[in-house]
Amino acid sequence: MPRPTNDGASSSPDPTLSGGDNGPASTESASRSARGTSGSSGGESRAAADTADPGRRPSDSRGRNVAARKKQYVIAPRQPDGLQAMSFQPLQFSALEQALRSSNDIEVVDTVGPKSVLGALADGMGGSQGVLVARMTEQKAAVLHQQGQGRLLVEHDQHLNLMDPALRQPAMVTGVMPAGGGPVLNAVISVTGKDGAPQAEAEVSLFGSLLPASGVTDANGQVTLSLYGETPESVRGLYVKPKADYWSFYQRDPDISTDEPNVVVLRALSDWPSLAGFPRQRAYGWGQKAMRLDQLPGNYRGQGIKIAIIDSGAATTHANLVGIKAGFDVLNKKTNPDGWDQDTLGHGSHCAGVIAAADIASGIRGFAPDAEVHACKLFPGGQISQLIDALEYCIDKQIDVVNLSLGGAEVSEALEQQIVRAKRAGIACIVAAGNSGDAVQYPASSPNVLAVAAVGKLDEFPADSYHAQTLDQNVDAYGYFTAKFSCFGPQVAVCAPGVAITSCVPPNNFAAWDGTSMATPHVTGLAALTLAHHPDFQTPQYKARGAERVERLFQIIRASARRVSLGDQSRIGFGLPDVLVAVGLQNAVNQQPAQAVAPQQAGAMAPMMASPQLGASLGGAIGGNIGGLMGGGAVYDPLGLDVARAAQIAAYGTQWPQLHVGRFPLPQPYNPIMW
Q1: Looking at 517, 565, 578, 637, which residue is catalytic?
Q2: CA–CA separation, 315 vs 311, rounded Å?
Q3: Half-sphere CA count of 241, side-chain side, radius 13 A
Q4: Which of 5, 73, 556, 603 pairs with 529 at a CA distance of 20 to 30 A?
Q5: From 105, 245, 311, 370, the catalytic residue
Q6: CB environment 533-561: b (16+ within 10 A), e (fewer)
Q7: Residue 310 scores a pLDDT above 60
Q8: Which stretches does DSSP call E strand in 475-581?
Q9: Is there a shared CATH topology between the 71-80+89-157 domain and the 273-583 domain?
Q10: How many CA atoms lie within 13 A of 297 on its CB side?
Q11: Residue 456: beta bridge partners?
């Protein structure tokens, strides 16, 4: 990622972006023109190409040799925050755009910026200019970066991923293909449901010790899978994921026949005790009940709050989602911007159901059924530039809460600038931590969002379902456990139910899925209820849109949480948020409501808590040296994210554990160091 220079220069020349530069991209452009000259024979053209591009090798047959293609980049002036101290002047967007468009080896494919005067002024800064999306070679991108001298962002427009956990292969499975033939195992898998009905479009995977085999069942519920280099005795696992309405299936070391179909009989979702009568009878998901949504008074429905779900769209064919009336198809904004109601993946519909499913007699009930939901379609194939565009839509529409069950491989400074803009405009971004079982992914790792990890609960799914494979050893006395796939790290603010979550899928069905993608909507729905009903947000200070309002919302959500599972702070943050506490209906016994903290104070406190000196000093104040116990260095302490809560602990001292009595059950002795 490009970083600002620190030479202290009072001014820097604008990048020389015209087509007359002498960068490598211009050479390539010239050679391309030479290859296209008329009158040359095919052999002469290939010879010219080989001369102009030494990296290309001659081909002995018809066709084209594989080489690196032009890549798509996000290009934007670096925002002045933090640069003015170094006497930099921000680049003018109009001049940058003109220069890029005049370059004959750069193709500008899109411009993303404020969609109205309201959007331009929404963050209170009035300086937003947008980003450019362009295709060019890596060499040209490097030249632009260098010429920008720290004032220009040039980033690869990376593709984003939905936060669904990848299918985990059994231990010792390798990616080796057997050489010289060897045995081939052909197995027919037949998937049926209730009363023997064939289940079409079910995903089926068979694992041996080498490469796995996967396929999708046909209309008869059957699929034939071939494992190379395997025998029936070496098969390690069989996985079946139905399209809808049934529990998944996983069998370790299955007894596979090669002579007749292998039948897998799936369990209907409604066969599970907690979902009896579902979907004909309305039900709360186990996660919603764990967060006490079922105990919330009926008039708490998220009225007046706008929620955006940036995902794969929302299927309004679903009876629980017919109330969604607005959205934006970012992928097809030039041809069909209203295509947001077509959800080919089902992922966005699943998130929308948890957040705001209509409160009708059937299906599920969402957290905030009366909120105004906007579905922004970003998948399949969403990229950083399109996420920036979706957030621009949110700024323009004055959205209050955004659900981001997505992530990328790398940090994007261009996206971070947009997230900051959104926060200043009063938009709270709730983001999935990730499903790689590793460090928190971006943008969940951003300090300007609320990152959500996933937990599960025993007895909320069949033992032979794939959900059982998410279980880890961090199980508390009440059955809560940290999901094995969930990312972890100091950025995790809270955890939420993310295993065996039942919600809506197209066209009018239901499915139980796992992922921090499923945990995040629980917190997004709770955030909407908090904004709509907590007394703080009826006061002038926090009713006004801005970063202070967002920061206060995050504080209240963290303060409402209780610890679940035996996982450490990096896996659960403050713990599982509680709806009744978050909306202000309940407080802990003898606990005073958390006092407001200005965003700049809270923001300054968090990085300081990484200091071993300050960690030691605050640790002493609450009766324990946090910095010392954690071995010094950078430590994670959620107290540093909420100054008011830290002050309360300091005030109550050793009586702090008693503050939880009568509020939540404590599945284990309370440990203030691990909270």
Answers
A1: 517
A2: 12
A3: 16
A4: 603
A5: 311
A6: bbebbeeeebeebbbbbbbbbbbbbbbbb
A7: yes
A8: 480-482, 492-497, 501-505, 509-513
A9: no
A10: 8
A11: 481
Look at the block and give the residue holding tokens 């046909």. 218
The arithmetic mean of pLDDT across residues 297-310, rounded, is 97
User: What does the alpha-carbon distance between residue 119 and residue 550 come to, in Å, rounded to a whole number?
Assistant: 18
Active site residue 253: no
For residue 466, give the 3-state DSSP assignment: helix
Structure token pair of residue 156: 């690869």
**Strands annotated E in 286-444:** 306-311, 326-329, 372-377, 401-404, 406-407, 428-432
Looking from the CA of 11 toward its CB, the CA atoms found within 13 Å total 2
The one catalytic residue in 145, 318, 347, 522 is: 347
Six-digit token pair at 284?
């709360």
Phi, psi angles (nearest 5°) of residue 265: -100, 115
Strands 401-404 and 428-432: parallel
CATH superfamily, with its number, for domain 273-583? Peptidase S8/S53 domain (3.40.50.200)
Kindly indicate the confidence band of residue 90, based on its pLDDT and cuts at 50, 70 and 90: low
Question: Given 2.60.40.1120, 3.90.1640.10, 1.20.120.1200, 3.90.180.10, which CATH number is that of 184-267?
Answer: 2.60.40.1120
Q: Which residues, in sequence order, are CB contacts of 42 under 8 Å at separation 6+?
A: none
What H or E segment, with its residue span, contains residue 668?
none
How far, in Å, CA of 278 to CA of 357, rounded?
Answer: 15
- Paired with 49 in beta bridges are none
Tokens linked to 520: 């995040």
- Helix, strand or coil for residue 253? coil
* 311 is a catalytic site residue: yes
569-613 pLDDT tens trace: 999 999 999 999 999 999 843 333 333 333 333 333 333 223 333
Q: What are phi and psi of 327, to 5 degrees?
A: 175, -175
For residue 223, what are the β-bridge partners? 189
Provide the Cα torsion 166, 169, 170, 172; round to 10°. -130
Domain ranges (residues) in the chain? 71-80+89-157, 184-267, 273-583
When the pLDDT of each residue in the chain is averaged and rounded to a whole number, the result is 80
Q: Is 276 exposed, middle or buried (0-12, 13-18, 19+ CB in 10 A)?
A: exposed
Name the pTM for this structure. 0.79
Q: Give the length of the chain.
A: 675
The CATH class, in words, for 71-80+89-157 is alpha beta
